Amino acid sequence: MINYLLDAIGNYVIVANFIALIIALHMRLDDKSVLISIVTLCALNGVMLWIFYYLESKYGVWDKDLMRHAYYLTFAMLEALGIYLLVLVHGYFGVKPTKIAKTIALSFVALSIIIMIKYYVRMHFSDNSDLTVTSLEILVQFVYSHGVPAINLGTSIMLMYILVRSRKRELKGVQSV
């Protein structure tokens, strides 16, 4: 039940991020950093979703160890790529990163670290039956399965908050004129 809920949250977060992008484009935000950040996040979400379903289709076809490597390393690399793209595009357009860009970059760092810790534990401890290792696996699984959706949900909520706040400022500016 909880895994279904966490998967559903993950899917809703992707939809919410794309809705945030549509809202931001509709609002014609002046803050280029917010637009760069949302576009980067949505592009990464789209690529990750496509890769996830592609890898899922290869489950049982490809070797189990190859799947493990492909899954964790691909997603960790994509999170790192997200950081690189944020920095690159902000620099290319000469835009100073705002708090939202920094927060999204931080979420990419946190997700990449969580993914790599999960990968490390799966690669080095998954066949060992020692009690402390099992406890470590349980802890890492808990952090991974709850931390990833929590970070993604928090980022999505922050995006929506920033957009609502920007819209309220726009409306105040129009009403006071």
What does this structure look like?
By secondary structure, the protein is mostly helical. It has one domain (2-168). 88% of the residues lie in helices and 0% in strands. The protein is built from five helices and no strands. The protein has helices at residues 2-27, 32-57, 64-93, 99-125, 131-176. The longest helix has 46 residues, at 131-176. The mean pLDDT is 85.
How many helical elements? 5
| Poorly predicted segments | none
The average pLDDT value, as a whole number, equals 85
Shape: elongated
Oligomer: single chain
Q: Please tally the β strands and state the result.
A: 0
Could you say how many structural domains there are in total?
1
User: Sheet bearing the most strands, described?
Assistant: none
Task: Tell me the Rg in angstroms.
Answer: 19 Å
Elements, N to C (H/E): HHHHH
| Helix-residue proportion | over 70%
What's this, in brief?
This protein has helices at 2-27, 32-57, 64-93, 99-125, 131-176. With 177 residues, the chain is mainly alpha-helical.
Defining traits:
mainly alpha, 5 helices, 177 residues, elongated
Helices and strands, with pairings:
Layout: H1 2-27, H2 32-57, H3 64-93, H4 99-125, H5 131-176
